[in-house]
Design a protein that fits this description.
Strand content: under 5%
CATH architecture of the largest domain: Orthogonal Bundle
CATH class of the largest domain: Mainly Alpha
Number of helices: 5
Radius of gyration: 17 Å
CATH topology of the largest domain: Helix Hairpins
Largest sheet: none
Shape: globular
Number of domains: 2
CATH superfamily of the largest domain: MazG-like
Helix content: 55-70%
Length: 107
């Protein structure tokens, strides 16, 4: 699935000659800006009041820039997520972390 998404994003980008703007720094900045736009949808309201259609749009932007950034560094998205889960399993053992919102160094 990620290969299909990456290919679609690269095709869209390349048709518009935008690769020149997609250096890692600017992709990371764009990712952060889109994440902030996602957060803005929740500002000053209960989460249940957020517009789901707008959430979908901003979340798609966040995912898109993350995928493009991973592609720049030739990172396998599935692999890096599974690796991170494994690291977090060590930081947050079930017997200590279950039901707790504490950070790993506070468990």
């Amino acid at each position: 699935m990620t290969e299909e998404l990456t290919a679609a994003l690269l095709k869209f980008r390349d048709e518009r000659d935008w690769a020149q703007f997609h250096n890692p720094k600017d992709l990371a900045l764009a990712l952060n800006i889109e994440a902030a736009e996602l957060l803005e949808l929740f500002l000053w309201k209960d989460a249940s009041e957020a517009n789901v259609d707008k959430i979908k749009e901003e979340l798609a932007d966040v995912f898109s820039y993350a995928i493009l950034l991973a592609e720049k560094y030739k990172l396998d998205i599935k692999e890096i997520i599974l690796d991170k889960i494994q690291l977090n399993q060590a930081k947050y053992p079930v017997d200590k972390a279950k039901g707790s919102a504490k950070k790993y160094n506070e468990l």
